[in-house]
Design goal:
It is flat, with a radius of gyration of 33 Å. Helix content is about 65%, strand content about 5%. The longest helix is centred in the C-terminal third of the chain and has 31 residues. It has three domains: about 120 residues, Potassium Channel Kv1.1, Chain A (2-Layer Sandwich), CATH 3.30.710.10; about 140 residues, Up-down Bundle (Four Helix Bundle (Hemerythrin (Met), subunit A)); about 120 residues, Helix Hairpins (Orthogonal Bundle). A four-stranded mixed β-sheet has the order 2-1-4-3. It has 18 helices and four strands. The C terminus is likely disordered. It starts with 7 loop residues before the first strand and ends with a helix. A hairpin with a 2-residue loop joins strand 1 and strand 2. One of its GO terms (biological process) is protein homooligomerization. It is a multi-pass membrane protein. Keywords: Cell membrane, Cytoplasm, Ion channel, Ion transport, Membrane, Potassium, Potassium channel, Potassium transport, Transmembrane, Transmembrane helix, Transport, Voltage-gated channel.
Length: about 425
């Protein structure tokens, strides 16, 4: 150390004093403490610590004393754990201050820190950016326009951010409900077009169906969804990110089939390919069922489901691997016991392994349609083992998915409550 006097130095951390020799500071495991060894002046020292007492050669750090005590235990014994009854993020901030990282924690505490940080990442991402002093006084050029775009974006993206956003969300939900009712009613026998129409009649019916009440309602709903999607695209900050969002992709999948069907109706006319086009039109119109997923924009439950699937894709893949491995084993054994051996009774339902896979999947999920079942004693014993193992295998990853679902629900509830507070402030103003 090139500054200070005496053979030892004193670190005062939140009122707790620690005495060290000068040589120990040179290779001290904490980077902030080791930086004291290279300080040449009092100004350099004050860049590292909060205060310095020249007479006592004492360096003061205004930090959490108990957290530093646990950090000193890591320096002495090599194990770093969280302080009991202290927030994990607060202790992590202390670690960063002294020059440690999350990898220095013991494995159990690393998992606690990862869980805690994953809980709060959505909170910080949802906070409004750039609320600083530059927002006061004179505003930069174009600030009014950006503020208007931000309000429009929040109105269309956050249903609980304002009164206008709630009204817009209510109208959008009504349009989704009406479109779903029309879609379901169009499959009733009274509404369905007869199948024995000629090509000319079918062409005339397809062209006139747009002018029917159901076609008019469908066109109005599509017009609303299209206008909503265009406005949201215009006011979005990042156009590329807007296109990549899952909910926006679902919106496009729900809207484009209508325009494709209209174009196909216009271009096919009375062509001989109309019958083949008619099947395509029915498939495209049935894709309107994606409009139900649009409700995820307005309901926390559906948002929680989507966020859970996004975060638990590893667990979902693990679950599928469990099922596929079990299907391969039990289907091969059931085909062998029911049809492959010469036992006098052959079960034709198990003629092949792919056919036995259907029995395995409905047995493991305890659905049990009863369309096929083993008839031999070894086959029935295998069926019981298949059912029990299915229950066990399906239950193993469910715990992780459940905890992730609860965590995602609390995150989205927190975000919704934050916007509800801004809505209450709007009412008061």
């Amino acid at each position: 150390m090139n500054f200070g006097r005496g053979p030892s130095v004193v670190l005062n951390v939140g009122g707790t004093r620690y005495s060290f020799s000068r040589e120990v500071l040179k290779d001290f495991p904490l980077r902030r403490v080791s930086r004291l060894h290279g300080c040449l002046s009092e100004q350099d020292v004050l860049e590292v610590c909060d205060d310095y007492d020249r007479e006592r050669n004492e360096y003061f750090f205004d930090r959490h004393s108990e957290a530093f005590g646990f950090i000193m235990l890591y320096v002495r014994h090599g194990h770093l754990r969280f302080v009991p009854h202290m927030c994990e993020l607060s202790f992590y901030n202390e670690m960063i201050y002294w020059g440690l990282e999350g990898s220095h924690l013991d494995y159990c505490c690393q998992r606690r820190l990862d869980d805690r940080m994953s809980e709060t990442c959505t909170y910080y991402a949802a906070e409004e950016p750039n609320k600083g002093p530059e927002g006061k006084g004179r505003r930069p050029p174009g600030a009014e326009g950006r503020k208007w775009l931000e309000r429009m974006r929040r109105t269309f993206e956050e249903p609980t951010s304002s009164v206008a956003a709630q009204v817009l969300a209510t109208v959008s939900i009504l349009f989704v409900i009406v479109s779903m009712v029309v879609l379901c009613a169009s499959t009733l026998p009274e509404w369905r077009a007869p199948e024995n129409r000629s090509v000319e009649e079918q062409s005339r019916y397809t062209a006139e169906s747009v002018r029917e009440p159901s076609g008019i309602i469908e066109a109005i709903c599509i017009g609303w969804f299209t206008a909503e999607c265009i406005v949201r695209f215009i006011v979005s900050k990042n156009k590329c990110e807007f296109v990549r969002r899952p909910l926006n992709i679902i919106d496009l999948l729900a809207i484009t089939p209508y325009y494709i069907s209209v174009l196909m109706t216009v271009f096919t006319g009375e062509n001989s390919q109309l019958q083949r086009a008619g099947v395509t039109l029915r498939v495209l119109r049935m894709m309107r069922i994606f409009w139900v997923i649009k409700l995820a924009r307005h309901f926390i439950g559906l948002q929680t489901l989507g966020l859970t699937l996004k975060r638990c894709y590893r667990e979902m893949v693990m679950l599928l691997v469990f099922i596929c491995v079990a299907m391969a084993i039990f289907s091969a054994l059931s085909q062998l016991l029911e049809n492959g051996l010469d036992l006098g009774t052959k079960n034709k339902d198990y003629a092949s392994i792919p056919a036995a896979c259907w029995w395995v999947i409905i047995s493991m999920t305890t659905v049990g349609y009863g369309d096929m079942c083993p008839i031999t004693v070894p086959g029935r014993i295998l069926g019981g083992i298949c059912v029990v193992s299915g229950i066990v295998l399906l239950a193993l990853p469910i715990t992780f998915i459940y905890h992730s679902f609860v965590q995602c629900y609390h995150e989205l509830k927190f975000r919704s409550a934050r916007y509800s507070r801004s809505l209450s402030a709007e009412f008061l103003n």
